[in-house]
Amino acid sequence: MKSSLSLSMFIKLFLLLALLDICVSKSVFDFFYFVQQWPGSYCDTKRSCCYPITGKPASNFSIHGLWPNYNNGSWPSDCNPKHPFNQSQISDLVSRAQTSWPSLGCPSSNNIKFWKHEWSKHGTCSESVGLDQHAYFQHTLDLKDQIDLLQILQDAGIKPDGSFYNVSSIEEAIEKGSGYFPGIRCNFDASRNSQLLEIYLCVDKSATRFIDCPILPHSNCPSQVEFPTFGADSGILQLATPSSPNYI
Ligand SMILES: *[C@@H]1O[C@H](CO)[C@@H](O)[C@H](O)[C@H]1NC(C)=O
Ligand SMILES: *[C@@H]1O[C@H](CO)[C@@H](O)[C@H](O)[C@H]1NC(C)=O
Ligand SMILES: *[C@@H]1O[C@H](CO)[C@@H](O)[C@H](O)[C@H]1NC(C)=O
Ligand SMILES: *[C@@H]1O[C@H](CO)[C@@H](O)[C@H](O)[C@H]1NC(C)=O
């Protein structure tokens, strides 16, 4: 009697531990993609873009996001609806984020909606490696300042001047300048030219160290792509500057 009770307890405990193990290993990802975008390419499409109400972003790469990913190419998302974005937790980071992580979506916004989306979809999945909301945003902003992609490309003669460049030259320049081989994603301008939209680099689970990518994102670029300017008013649907705000 006594021994069968402890046996059933042992089995229950074993099953509980097995279940726990499945839950935990499912929620831990392998690495992050740190994704930056070129605003000129985001904006000169048929769909166009909107500047945030804080003003026109710099002619520089800006952050799209920091995305947990598995080595097999899939990724977790929307991991914790119980922890929605809370702006007051990143109040000390807002001015940096406005510069480095601007929203270009329409309608014009104060960027919060974009950050909120990135946190809910991707950021909550990094809670499994111990990052809270403040750490997630701080690490992402710090990563941006570690590698100056625009400078690296310009040093290799690859400039946002509207001309076409070999994707292999772009990849080589970034590998040489940063030490890491990037993933590249493209979109189309209004005349259907393929252009450089996003650059992916990989980061370890601490969200502080760049690593060689375990797997590169599927590239949708042809061998040559345009690197468009991010000039005055180019393809802007709703121009919002501090002097002429457009909140629509
Ligand atoms: C990829 O790996 C994760 C974690 O091991 C797993 O949960 C997921 O089902 C895998 N996806 C595919 C498509 O194999
Ligand atoms: C947001 O964070 C602040 C500061 O940590 C906290 O006081 C507040 O209760 C939080 N708000 C919500 C809705 O969780
Ligand atoms: C572009 O961003 C990098 C990384 O944050 C920064 O070091 C650099 O000064 C910026 N360049 C310009 C032209 O804004
Ligand atoms: C670009 O690629 C083409 C075709 O592979 C090659 O002939 C050309 O030399 C490359 N240009 C540069 C600047 O690497």
UniProtKB/TrEMBL annotation:
GO terms for cellular component: extracellular region. One of its GO terms (molecular function) is hydrolase activity. SUPFAM superfamilies: Ribonuclease Rh-like. The keyword Lyase applies. Belongs to the RNase T2 family. May remobilize phosphate, particularly when cells senesce or when phosphate becomes limiting. This is Extracellular ribonuclease LE-like.
